Amino acid sequence: NLRLGVLASGRGSNLQAIMDAIDGGRLPAEVAVVISDYADARALERARSRNIPAFHINPAAFPHKGDYEEAVVDTLKKHAVDLVCLAGYMRLVGAAMLEAFPNRIMNIHPALLPAFPGLHAQQRALEYGVRYSGCTVHFVDEGMDTGPIILQAVVPVLPDDTPETLADRILEQEHRIYPEAIALFAAGRLEIRGKRVYIREG
Ligand code: GAR
């Protein structure tokens, strides 16, 4: 079984979708460990309620960002993680993690990359006036939301949308495509060639 390490800063609804896909037999994997940079992240509670090891690692407790990341990597390694899944993890991944898990870190972003990378993607899409937005699952590289794209899903932007209603519509698709992307990885069906990810026949 593919062992997942999930990094989450907050609510953890994508973590929940991953755990539900595992329970539902749609994802042959297990969540080996959950790590948050916030002590009160609901993601930690969701993990603990399933007896999944869950740790708060406080970035402020480390003098250098590199030391914080080493601590995260140690914890991931200790739990024999094969794939790192960022699920609402609100920090840029640095060299320590990228070197420890080359092409083995995925992220979900609430926009159609390369549009609207970074924070507040849904609000910025709304303000820009795009007719469609969506979400992207991608491998993580050293840039901000720039890594090879695995799956995307599109949703319409509606006239009455607020950032919240648009975010909710996008979130529904996140919960669908994130487990799907991880399942493709678990099946060994993803091949990265340069910037492009090819999905092999199942
Ligand atoms: C999700 O919409 C995710 O795409 C986004 O944060 C939310 C986390 O929700 N991630 C980013 O914006 C990353 N820059 P969740 O904690 O309920 O999964």
How would you describe this structure in keywords?
alpha/beta, 7-stranded mixed β-sheet, two-stranded antiparallel sheet, 35% helix, binds glycinamide ribonucleotide, Formyl_transf_N, Formyl_transf_N_sf, GART_AS, EC 2.1.2.2, transferase
- Return the string of H and E elements: EHEHEHEHEHEEHEE
Strand proportion, as a percent range, falls in 15-25%
Count of DSSP H/I helices: 6
The ligands found in this model are:
glycinamide ribonucleotide
Describe the overall structure.
With 202 residues, the chain is of the alpha/beta class. It has helices at 13-23, 42-48, 65-78, 95-100, 121-128, 163-186, and strands at 2-7, 29-36, 54-56, 83-86, 105-109, 132-139, 149-156, 190-193, 196-199. The strands form two sheets. It has a seven-stranded mixed sheet with strand order 3-2-1-4-5-6-7, sandwiched between helices. Strands 8-9 form a two-stranded antiparallel sheet. Helix 1 links the parallel strand 1 and strand 2 (29-36). Helix 1 (13-23) crosses helix 6. It is globular and about 50 Å long. The model has no long low-confidence stretch (mean pLDDT 98). The structure holds glycinamide ribonucleotide. Glycinamide ribonucleotide binds next to helix 1, strand 5 and helix 6.
